[in-house]
Every structure is written in structure tokens, then in C-alpha cells.
Amino acid sequence: NAQGTLNAGQITATLNGSNVAFTFDPVSGNINIPTVTLNDGMNTIVVNMTNACSSTNVTYQVQYNGCQPPVITITSLANGATVNSSNVSFAASVLNSNGAANIVLLVNGVAASFDFNETNGALTSNILLNEGANTITLNVNGCQTATQTITVNYVIPCQDVVVSLMQPYTNNLTVTESAFAITLNALNVDN
């Protein structure tokens, strides 16, 4: 509240050294600085008031932390999951990344390609797993760094043994000779 013989021409307002708009009500003495856009870090707002007999200023120090840290949510695979296919779909939601250039997807320490929708933060990739434990890491470097790592176990699926009778074509029969031969076709039998 500034009263007396002060008028708007005797007031200045600055944000980090640059003039900013303000209003002054000479009846109430109120000086109003509407919303200003702060920079990341420390901001200095100075209001200077001068009349014929004095001069004073009010200085505000405002620390602004505008960083929105990255947020990673892996949506397609759970940590510790076991899968029976070496080629799996990977999906995640990545918020506050500041673009695909700030994202790295690693599968067993090797960079993997991915598609990233900057509008909704959807990240997708088809990744190839090795037999056994596989480490999948998603690194995002926005104004801060975020990392999420999961382990997915790939087990080659066990396939049932499949048998086809070749000779004879039936397995319940009566024969008249003591020499007897059988031919089967067997699939998915380990040697």
C-alpha cells in the first residue's frame, strides 16, 4: 500500500531486470502486478517507488522450480514375468520426457529401437529376448533423470510329443508271424 503524492509515473516494476506491467490505484495506494512468467531458478521482482521527498523499493526473491520430472510406467510386461516367445511387445507410458531424443530403451544393455508418441507419451517396441533372464531398462532424461528396469525370463516353450503311427496303422492287432516291425513318426522328441 503506497499513499501520499505518489503517481504511476513514479513507480517501476521489474522481473529479472525487465520492466513488467503493473496497475496503481492512487485512492487506495495499491500496486498490483498481474501474473508474470517466472524463469526456472531464482527470480527477482523489484518495485521501485519515488516521490518528491523519498525513494524506496521492495524486492521479492522467488525461487521457481519448473521441472516436471519424467514419469515412467511400463504397461506391457511385469517385472519377473516369464514369457514363452522370444519376440515380445513392449509398451510404456513416458511423461515429461521433452522428446524421444531424451529416451533410451536398453535390452540386455543394447539399445533397442522404439516408437514414441510425443502427444500422449506412448512408447512401443518389439524386442527380441535371449533364452533365460533378460534386463529391460528405460532411461528418460528430461529436466531430471528417471530409470525403470525390469527383468523378463524367456523360456523356450516345451512342446508335447506328437506321435503318428506309420506301420502298422493301428496299435491293437493280431499277427501270425514272430518277426514284427514298427514304424512311428515322433515330433518334439529331444535327442
What general outline do the C-alpha atoms trace?
A: rod-shaped
Uncertain stretches: none
Would you list the SSEs in sequence order as H and E? EEEEEEEEEEEEEEEEE
Compute the average pLDDT. Answer: 90
The chain-level structural class is mainly beta
Q: What portion of the residues fall into strands of 2 or more residues?
A: over 45%
Strand order of the largest sheet: 8-15-14-10-11
Share of residues in helices: under 10%
Radius of gyration based on Cα positions? 36 Å
Number of H/I helices: 0
Largest sheet: 5 strands, mixed
Number of strands: 17
Head-to-tail CA distance between termini:
93 Å
Structure description:
It is a single chain. The protein is mainly beta. It has strands at residues 11-15, 18-19, 23-25, 30-32, 41-50, 55-64, 71-74, 82-83, 87-95, 103-107, 110-111, 115-117, 122-128, 132-141, 145-154, 162-167, 183-187. A hairpin with a 4-residue loop joins strand 5 and strand 6 (55-64). It is rod-shaped and about 135 Å long. The N and C termini lie far apart (93 Å).
Give the helices and strands, then pairings.
Blueprint lengths: L10 E5 L2 E2 L3 E3 L4 E3 L8 E10 L4 E10 L6 E4 L7 E2 L3 E9 L7 E5 L2 E2 L3 E3 L4 E7 L3 E10 L3 E10 L7 E6 L15 E5 L4
Parallel strand pairs: 8-15
Antiparallel strand pairs: 1-2, 1-5, 3-4, 5-6, 7-9, 9-13, 10-11, 10-14, 12-13, 14-15, 16-17
